[in-house]
Each structure stands twice: as structure tokens, then as C-alpha cells.
TrEMBL record:
Keyword annotations of the record: Hydrolase
Keyword tRNA-binding: no
Pfam families with a match to the protein in the record: zf-UBP (PF02148)
SUPFAM superfamilies: RING/U-box
UBP-type domain residues: 21-103
SMART domains on file: ZnF_UBP
Keyword Iron on entry: no
Protein name stated in the entry: Ubiquitin-hydrolase Zn-finger-containing protein
Biological source species: Nonomuraea fuscirosea
Top-level taxonomy: Bacteria, Bacillati, Actinomycetota, Actinomycetes, Streptosporangiales
GO molecular function annotation: hydrolase activity; zinc ion binding
């Protein structure tokens, strides 16, 4: 048995063929509607963004880490809302800030 830093059984949570453990945060997400497709913080500062992310806990939309402001990460630090998704139609990419990986 392999334990993680918190003493939890990692082997029991692991995916197939050595994949990373499942992110339990995904199971806890409510259904949310994303806000307007803009980063309000960037607009207030007169900045532009590269990509927009939506918080899957509350629907807040903010710029990604590859944008100058990294406002989505700042939202995570303020709220502890763990998972974001790209605000692009048809995209399935999601990121968990807690596990620091795609989920």
C-alpha cells in the first residue's frame, strides 16, 4: 500500500495502469453558469488576456496563468475553489489547483 502526504491510501484511489489518482474535487462541483466572457480585473487594469478560465465552483471568469494578470489563480487563492475549465466551446480541459494537474 502506498500512502500520500496525508496518510491516505493512494493505491486505492489510483487510476488504471499507474494513472494519477482521481481528483475528488470533480465529484463535489455544483452545476454553474459561467459569467461574462471577460476578465473583469484585466479590464479594470487596461490589460488583455491570453485565455479565459471559468471557476467550476462559482462560475467566476478570469484570465489564465499565461496571461499577464493570472487572475484565475488569484481567485483560487482567495476562495479555495479548486477546479477551473477553459472558457471555450467544446473544450473538456480542466485544471485542479490543489493537485496541480489536469483532471
Amino acid at each position: 500500500m502506498t500512502l500520500d502526504a496525508e496518510g491516505m491510501n493512494v493505491t486505492a484511489r489510483a487510476g488504471l495502469n499507474g494513472q494519477a489518482p482521481r481528483c475528488d474535487h470533480i465529484d463535489l462541483l455544483p452545476a454553474v453558469e459561467p459569467g461574462l466572457p471577460e476578465c473583469k480585473e484585466c479590464l479594470a487594469l487596461g490589460q488583455t488576456w491570453t485565455r479565459l478560465l471559468v471557476c467550476l465552483t462559482c462560475g467566476w471568469v478570469a484570465c489564465s496563468d499565461d496571461s499577464r494578470g493570472s487572475h484565475a489563480r488569484a481567485h483560487y487563492r482567495e476562495t479555495d475553489h479548486p477546479v477551473v475549465a477553459v472558457l471555450d466551446p467544446g473544450s473538456t480541459w480542466r485544471w485542479c489547483y490543489v493537485h496541480r494537474r489536469t483532471v
